[in-house]
Specification:
The chain has about 280 residues and is an alpha+beta fold. Strands 1, 2, 3, 4, 5, 6 and 8 form a seven-stranded mixed beta sheet that branches. Strands 9-10-7-11 form a four-stranded antiparallel beta sheet, with no helix packed on it. α4 crosses α6. It is globular. The structure holds cytidine-5'-monophosphate (C5P).
């Protein structure tokens, strides 16, 4: 039995550069893995099985775990039946990349169980066929991602940060948030003039108490779809954190720095840390 942690991510900044002819958006984003993790168990077996602790999630080919299993087989020709169990802890429709992380973890695990026919770089390239964020999870936990999110510049670990994740009851669909962005691009061209590469230098040379120049261009369309998110952000900003930002396409927020998060009715909160993995190793329990 191989037991692996499947971590969530946050986007420390997320800049939208424009819409592409294929319908995706060009992005420039600093991704960081955090230790809010699902747990996955993998075992070579007599037949394929897949179980998930969250009954609201599909367990057929609509689940990215099954997409990853089938992709691995197509790419490598290794068809060993496998039993997979997924224990969900990462909230979904949250912008935390839970499904993409599960897919990446599945690629890694099957590669281990089948005698490592692929390199980590190959797995990352294949992952992009499943979803834009999957490749990131095959990095070592900190990466600058461009293209539709699948082009990775791996980065050394950032300074250790305590991070609170706050997930409100509302969930958001990634395509809906992106499609609301078109108006934002036309109306607010100023916000798109930020130099992502210069920002990256600020993050990587950061001292532990610096206020980071975090931002997320998807906040505006997300707040249009769910106005209560703008109110939640304002409220979180009163608790003394140095930064409060929505992650990815939302609806979860992350709070950095030494704030104090009181118990908040109807919100799920998670106290987390940035995590990185060593080369050749996965995120261990
Ligand atoms: O790649 P993934 O399947 O995760 O993307 C889900 C949806 O999010 C896409 O179909 C697209 O509508 C939107 N998206 C986008 N630009 C990106 C990533 C995702 O428009 N860079």
């Amino acid at each position: 039995m191989l037991t692996l942690q499947s971590p969530a991510k946050i986007n420390l900044f997320l800049k939208i550069l424009g819409k592409r002819p294929d319908g995706y958006h060009e992005i420039a984003s600093l991704f960081q893995a955090i230790d809010l993790c699902d747990t996955m168990h993998f075992k070579l077996s007599q037949e394929d099985t897949f179980t998930c602790s969250d009954p609201s999630l599909p367990t057929d080919e609509n689940n990215l775990v099954i997409k990853a299993r089938e992709l691995f087989r197509r790419k490598t020709g290794r068809n060993n039946p496998v039993s997979i169990q997924l224990q969900k802890n990462i909230p979904h429709q949250a912008g935390l990349g839970g499904g993409s992380s599960n897919a990446a973890t599945t690629l890694w695990a099957l590669n281990q169980l089948c005698g490592t026919p692929a390199t980590a770089e190959q797995l990352a390239a294949w992952g992009a066929e499943i979803g834009s964020d999957v490749s990131f999870f095959l990095s070592q936990g900190t990466a600058y991602c461009t293209g539709r999110g699948e082009k990775l510049l791996p980065l050394p670990s950032l300074n250790a940060q305590n991070v609170w994740i706050v997930k409100p009851p509302v969930g958001l669909s990634t395509p809906k948030v992106y499609s609301g962005l078109k108006l934002e691009v036309e109306n607010q061209s100023k916000q798109f003039s930020v130099d992502a590469e210069a920002l990256l230098v600020k993050f990587t040379s950061q001292k532990s108490n610096d206020k980071l120049p975090v931002f997320n261009d998807l906040e505006a369309p997300a707040f249009q779809l769910a106005p209560e998110l703008a109110e939640l952000k304002q409220k979180l900003e009163t608790f003394g954190f140095s930064n409060v930002l929505m992650s990815g396409s939302g609806s979860a927020f992350f709070c950095l720095g030494d704030g104090n998060l009181p118990a908040l009715a109807s919100l799920n909160t998670y106290n987390c840390k940035f995590i990185n993995r060593s080369p050749g190793k996965w995120y261990l329990p």
